[in-house]
Amino acid sequence: MGSVTTLSDDPRSAHGRILELFSQRARTGVHDVVMAELARDLRMSKRTIYLHFPSKMALIEELLDNWATKVEHQSANRWNSDETCVQSLKRWASEWSQGIGQYSPRFWTEVRDYCPDAFEKYRKRMDALREHSLERMAFWLRPGLSPGVALELFFAAVRTAMDPAICDRHNITRSDALDSLVEVWARGALVDPDALIGQVNNASRQAKTLRSDQP
Fold first, then answer.
1. Range of the domain at 178
2. 161 domain-assigned
C-alpha cells in the first residue's frame, strides 16, 4: 500500500524504478528532484532515464496518470466490497495516507504550475470520483447534513490525523489516529456506520431507477 506510482509497470524494471524513485524524491516538490542525482542513485546514466522519460514533465504526467488510475480502481473495489461503511472509510483513509497524502502542498503547487494540462486532467478525474462519492454518501448521512461539507470535514480530519505532532502528543500511531477519527466522524455523521456497502449501493440504484421513471 505504500507505493502509489507503479500500477502498470513492474517496479523492478528500469522504467518502474525510475518512476518510483522520482515519486519518492518529489514528495516535498518536483523542483527538488535533480535528474543527475536520480541517475546516480539508480546507478544508470541520464541518457537511460531520458530514453524512458524524455523530460521531468513526462515523469510527472505518468505519475499523475498512474495515481488517478490506481485511485479509480481502489474506489471501485471499495464500492463493490462486502465491507461496512465505517470499514470502507478506514480503508480509504489508510490508502490515502500511505499514498497521495504523503505529498506536500508545495508538490501540488509546483505540479500545477509546471504541468498545467496534466494537472487539470488529473483534477477532473479526481473530481469525477468525488462527485460519485457524494452521490453515494447521500444515502449514508444523517438527514439534514450536507454531503459536500461532510466530505470536506472528513478530508480535513484525515489530514489532521496524519500530523506527527498530534500522534506524538497522544502517544499513538498514525494508523490508530486515522482509525479513531473515522470512528468519531462516522458515528456522528452516518445513519448506520455498520451498514454494508452493498446496502448503500442498492439504495442508490433504487433511487436512480425511481428518478428515471418519473415523467
1. 64-213
2. yes
